[in-house]
Amino acid sequence: MEKINIKSSESLHNRRTQEQILCAAEVLFAEKGFSHTSIRDITEKADCNIAAVNYHFHGKENLYIEVFHLRMSTIRDLRINAVREFLSNKPEQKSLEELIQIFATAFLEPFLEDGSGERLMELMMRERYDPHLPQHMFVEEIIQPIKTIMKDALSQIYHGLNDTAAELCIHSIVGQLFHVMQAQELFKGMDKTDMPILDMSKAIEHIVKFSVGGIRQFVKDKVE
């Protein structure tokens, strides 16, 4: 029994150390970027030694990937679960407006959280302009799984949309949402009255109406 308790205590200590390192690394990678963040910076902030980083993550590169992996899996699951719950409703309760509203909200929600949302946005912006993740990691871990379930949802509502059309519609919606995210950083501190795109509820409302109108017109033109 004593050995089990010791192992349990060691396991808990290891998990806590991993969490401390990941948290410290995320903050520093967001603030300074990958290239300007050293292992020593991370260990000082995480209150651990370099050996702990190497033991748990085998170096800075793998630690950077793990920070994004955890964030991306959380984002992916949030979006997929929101659409999956929508699909579980009875057919007569489904609407295109509701689908896009739910998806848009789930898409932007992680970026609205105080502190962590802004940090996540900084991380993604830095990776965009100074990439260090494996090629296609975003595509394989986020884009493809979300696109698959969104195509399924769109096809249930509009049978006239083939795979290509549905995929293009999804890219259009996501493009608008990314622009809203980037605007939060670009126009930070400006008055929402002058910049309505900074008002998240208004931005989502516009994206829903704009996207629904476009998709319905596309289907109508195709039928005619």
The CATH class of the largest domain is: Mainly Alpha
Shape: elongated
CATH topology of the largest domain: Tetracycline Repressor, domain 2
CATH architecture of the largest domain: Orthogonal Bundle
What does this 3D model show about the protein?
This protein has 224 residues and is mostly helical. The protein has two domains: 58 residues, Homeodomain-like (Arc Repressor Mutant, subunit A, Orthogonal Bundle); 163 residues, Tetracycline Repressor, domain 2. It is built from nine helices and no strands. Helix 1 crosses helix 2, helix 1 crosses helix 6 and helix 8 runs antiparallel to helix 9. The N and C termini lie far apart (75 Å). The mean pLDDT is 87.
Report a brief summary of the structure.
It contains 9 helices and no strands. With 224 residues, the protein is mainly α. The chain folds into 2 domains: 1-58, Arc Repressor Mutant, subunit A (Orthogonal Bundle); 61-223, Orthogonal Bundle (Tetracycline Repressor, domain 2), CATH 1.10.357.10.
Which descriptors would you attach to this protein?
single chain, 224 residues, mainly alpha, Arc Repressor Mutant, subunit A, Tetracycline Repressor, domain 2, 2 domains, elongated
Lay out the secondary structure:
Layout: H1 2-32, H2 39-46, H3 50-57, H4 60-87, H5 96-108, H6 116-129, H7 137-157, H8 163-186, H9 200-223
Helix pairs in contact: 1-2, 1-4, 1-6, 4-5, 4-7, 5-8, 5-9, 7-8, 8-9
